[in-house]
Amino acid sequence: MKKISRINFAHLPTPIEELPRLTKALGGPRIFVKRDDQTGLAFGGNKTRKLEFLVAEAQEQGADMLISAGAIQSNHCRQTVAAAARFGFDCKLVLTGDRPSRPSANFLLDQLFGAEIITVADRADRDQILQETFDNALAAGKKPYLVPYGGSSPTGAMGYTFAMEELMSQLKKLRGLEIDWIVFGTSSGGTHAGLVLGQRLFGFKGKILGISIDEPEMELKAHVSALASQASEKLGERIQFTGDDVLANENYCQAGYGVFGAGEREAIKLFASNEGLLLDPVYTGRAAAGLIDLIRKGFFKKEETVLFWHTGGQPALFADKYSQEIV
Predict the structure, then answer these.
(1) How far apart are CA 43 and CA 219, in angstroms?
(2) Domain ends where: 89, 120, 151?
(3) In CA terms, which of 7, 117, 128, 242 is 20 to 30 Å from 101?
(4) Domain that holds residue 129
């Protein structure tokens, strides 16, 4: 396997914890959680694993600025600007939505870490504004590095390729604990693609199910399989994945991105009241709502073991948009 540049700054390995009270409340299967909300950088989250590789690539290219995009309460952008601050990059963020009159949650943290923020009202215009921001930085004599949306590039996918190696090592130490299913929230596809590639490389025998946050199932399958294939080439493996290699469920995203509903509310309350574990209102809340519904429908066998991969995002709980709706 070809070596790829990486800066080790995430707090790894993240813990695996059993959730016995939640398991009992839902009547099985046995549920565990992988705590990637504890990766350490700026309240943690899954993007920190990706940034270990993305920041290394930016440094290799001689960049002096990180530019990225997301929603107003983007967890990805919060971690990106924190990495920029830690490693001496300037940072510009293109955020979709109305600029809050009172900064809170991730938007507040973006400012605290020193990001220059450009807001875009319509998500359809974001890519154009992002490219203009990049071009303007070049014209001003900067050396920008474009961190892709969600960190989801072949380089970013390395974070979860090697997260699977970490998981396999942990399972061996946990007296041979066997996981039948990994369940998590999927959107831009980098986490999903990395897990699919890592499964192939490191021999995970269970199934990997992404609960879509905002994308149609077939589009996810196509995008994730292509990204996993491209990521394999960076490691010199040249594995060709197809949509059949990707499991995704689109049944819980019809309300739209960032729309907080009854499923998310129940999931957040169940995890909090049974396990003292906090989810976020956009990603892990929706993924957990899907997990809970699938359990109730008998999708998983009671004797199976499910690992919920917690991708972080809890600062969004304190955004004005969500905090008044949760309780």
Answers:
(1) 31
(2) 151
(3) 128
(4) 47-151
2 located within any domain: no
How high does pLDDT run on average in the chain?
A: 96
Report pLDDT for 221. 98
Which single residue is written with the structure tokens 């890592």?
Answer: 198
- The verdict on 126 and 217 lying in the same domain is no
Catalytic annotation, pick one of 68, 74, 153, 229: 74
pTM of the predicted model as reported, rounded to 2 decimal places? 0.97
Q: Is residue 10 part of a domain?
A: no
Confidence of residue 77 (pLDDT cuts 50, 70, 90): very high
Q: Are residues 122 and 231 in the same domain?
A: no
Q: Is the pLDDT of residue 327 over 80?
A: no
Shared domain for 258 and 284, answered yes or no, is yes
- Taking the CA of residue 236 as centre, how many other CA atoms within 13 Å lie in the half-sphere pointing to its CB? 4
Domain count, the chain: 2
| Two structure tokens written together for 231 | 């990521």
Whether residue 192 sits in one domain with residue 106: no
Pair 261, 211 in one domain: yes
CA distance 120 to 98: 7
Burial 271-293, CB ≥16 within 10 A → b, else e: beebbebbbbbbbbbbbbbbbbb
Whether 229 is a known active-site residue: answer no
> CA-based Rg of the chain, rounded to a whole angstrom?
19
